[in-house]
Amino acid sequence: MTATSAARATSRGPAPSRLTLPVVLLAQFVTPMAIAGTAIGLPRISGDLGTQPTALQWVVNGFNVAFALGVLVWGVLSDRVGHRVTFALGAMLFSAGSAVSAVAPSLAVLDVARIVSGAGAAAVLTGASAMLSHAFDGPARTKAFALFGTINGLGLALGPTVAGLLVTVVGWRGVFLVQAAALALAAATTRLLPGSVPTPATPSDSERAPILDLTLLRDREFLAMCLVPVAGSIGFVTLLTYLPSAFSGIRSMSPGSAGLVMVAMTIPVLVAPTAVAELVTAVRWVTVGSVVYVGLAALLLGTIGIQLLSEARSIGWVIVPMILLGLGFGLPIGLVDGHALAVVPAERAGTAAGLLNFFRIGSEAVFVAGYALVLSTVVGRRLTGAAAEATAAGRPGHPEVYRNAFHTTVTGMLCLLVVLTAAILLVRRGSARAEES
């Protein structure tokens, strides 16, 4: 037994209750939905609360920024106060922020409430992943994190669909009411979950564990696992966000038709994590490393293939690339979290979870924003004024302009993926754990 595994064995908390996974997964289903689904309600929100562009965008950006920065802070705090307490506090903050969002009388109040919700979501994600790492071991942990990854992917993939349905049926305020109710239920049941013993805080500990604790990245295997979600942000999350606009701008597809085609990209995210967990448990040669490499290859091939999208070709040409992109994101999604937290000392699990999720959430925010900036810039070289704004937003009318901008942007993404894949291979090379996994 290695020093790390011995530390984990002595620091492991009580056995998980039957409610551990259901409660954690309920909260985790809502969290990515709050990221992916809120934007669809912005037109209705602007009709009720005003059209000030910056304030409207901060309904989405405020949550994302608070989420990305919050995982770092909560990662360190959770190792001090305990992971269950972190999860509970996060669920209460998320629920309270969502409740205020649902009754917000102005954009300013809504923006503040969304920032509170984002901070709470960061605590939920950090506490949940660290709690699962402590509560489960061996094959049970592999399966738990597979479900964790599946639910994260499901919430991300279904966020726009569920939010759109709620906006249509009960209005945009109903989206936030549903979030508030789900997180209130999770908060109410946290006392039934297994706790973890917080690490006593001392001055020397505080010096060794700053908010942004980059010392954990000295572990090559942990660093590699932090880079894998960044690849998913580039190759999957950005295209999940903007492919419907590309279908509209290039193919003049309706939102309903585009949403139906997107199923090809989201179904692999739902089935891959559980299937991988079974294989890793049952088949000796299927390791964390091999799954990561297959996932990276799928992202690369899918990103190459998605450039077949054009106004002249059938939409069928991009179905296989979309499936590959879904597999590239879905294959390692839960496995990476479990493995990353398994290679650090148990008493640093919260900090490690915060750092891992900072890479994940931060890269999503950066690359989603970067994609939009590059695409609109390329469109602006061909069109100006209202025509440029409409085309960059995906409105039909200039398919050749949008296609050119889309291909240019995706080519840039492909270059980033190649560099990142090479970096992951180099980081894992020479790592002792790379030989074992």
Overview of this protein structure:
There is one protein chain. Helix 4 runs antiparallel to helix 16 and helix 6 crosses helix 15. The protein is globular and about 55 Å long. Helices cover 78% and strands 0% of the residues. It is built from 19 helices and no strands. It has 2 domains: 181 residues, MFS general substrate transporter like domains (Growth Hormone, Chain: A, Up-down Bundle); 223 residues, MFS general substrate transporter like domains (Growth Hormone, Chain: A). The protein is mostly helical.
Q: Strands, helices and their partners?
A:
Blueprint: H1 3-11, H2 20-36, H3 42-49, H4 53-81, H5 83-102, H6 107-135, H7 138-170, H8 172-188, H9 203-208, H10 220-251, H11 255-261, H12 263-282, H13 288-305, H14 319-330, H15 333-342, H16 349-380, H17 385-392, H18 399-428, H19 432-436
Helix pairs in contact: 2-6, 2-7, 2-8, 4-5, 4-6, 4-16, 5-6, 5-8, 6-7, 6-15, 6-16, 7-8, 7-12, 7-15, 10-13, 10-14, 10-15, 10-16, 10-18, 12-14, 13-14, 13-18, 15-16, 16-17, 16-18
